[in-house]
Amino acid sequence: MAQTQGAPLSRGKEVIIIRDRKAVFERRAETGRNPLNEPIYQWQPIGTSWAAVEEVGEGEVAAKGVEGAVAAIRVLVLDTPQARSITLADRLRILGQTWDLVGRGPHSTRRGIYAFVGARYDASDGAP
């Protein structure tokens, strides 16, 4: 059966991802020197993207090695060169909070989607 022009192709039970949150990725950058000529670092935005947010299950939290985390989320963005340039040394601001990146890579089942796992730590725990 031929598809008419503009008709969507059915791919079975594909789940639609709604990217309705704005994610801001930040990187530590040297912004100057103090009187002792030591570098001063601050977090600078390196890019923004529309993202979908999913909760991370208990089993995945243990597998990722973020057991001391107060909360963990998975953030899904389009697979772009900008998304691929984000490293685990960077951080993420989304949902009004700042998250340390603890995992990244192409989504295992969704083509064209790049996934990040972010974790928040209790300030008294001494985050990694």
From TrEMBL:
It holds the Pfam family Phage_HCP. InterPro entries: Phage_SPP1_head-tail_adaptor, SSP1_head-tail_sf. This is Head-tail adaptor protein.
